[in-house]
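subagent[fold] <- orchestrator: predict structure for attached chain, return tokens only, no commentary.
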Amino acid sequence: MSTRPDKILALQFKYLGDTVFLTPALRALAATGAELHVLVPAEAAALLAHLPWIKKVWALPRTRGRARLQDSWPLIRALRREGFGRSVDFGGNDRGAILSRVCGAKVRLASVDREKLLYRLCYTQRVATASLPVSWVQRHRQLLSAWAVPLTGPAHLEIAADPALAAEAAQWLPAGRVLCHLGTSQPRKEWPVARWQEFYRRAQAAGLATVFATGPGSREQAALRDLQKLEPGIAVLPPMPSLRLYLAVLRRARAVVAGDTGPLHFAAGLGVPVVGLFATGDSLLKSAPVYEARQVVRGSVCHCDGRQTHSPVCGDGQPCVLGIRTEAVFAALTAALAAE
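subagent[fold] -> orchestrator:
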């Protein structure tokens, strides 16, 4: 009888924050004694690369909206040579379905939001997304019940920074700074610049050192410039040359304050104290449940999600994000720092 451990390939092709939400489910798989490999887009690989309980992270080149078969085929052939017994696609999309099939595992599990021919051809086991919890973390963990994977372990986020970059990171972010991240992927999830100004002034009065950052997009950068015009003295973190370095920099923060966005989830996974600003209904239902109550500051009742779930902009006259009060955010940060 063979004593070779079960060899599992986990896949997901979504955004960076979604990769962090996978980690509790990945940890549960690793705890079974399986040899765990993970296939993610190349831009997300740094998030998982230094977790010791993952055997190997495979980074697939990706360009949104375009297949890169010439670049991907050598990696696919290498994956096929691994001889995976099982694969699980946590994304359940077309790209993941095709990769699940061509990587050669005999048992291929996925959560899918609808039945279609491609999914029937590519997956041997399918679980309807509607039957799973709404929370991203619990959804991924519950999917594994199809394989009777025990879910008794912790459900917290877990990533790791590259320790070799610690000295370089110290040159970018001085010790003891609270990092405030302005941007998110959707304007409806963003706290207004005027509120960030109020928060900055409260922090200044309390003697807290802050640094402000945002995403690389033109809209996010414009918001940061607007804050700089209001408060020319604020410290700003320049755009990072790589995600690997950014994680090492983020690991140095005394705390992180941000909306429902990748950097908040990265910080939580790194073990940095966080304060999350959650307002929209989808954020409160899908992202916030992984956090403790003291780490979450909620907005007012969200009226836009029922009719604008897929819209990045809130059309309501009183956007729910305006219900997040400066004093509540500052109180949550004070409590987080007191618990250090």
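orchestrator: received. Logging for downstream: The mean pLDDT is 92. The chain is about 35% helix and 15% strand.
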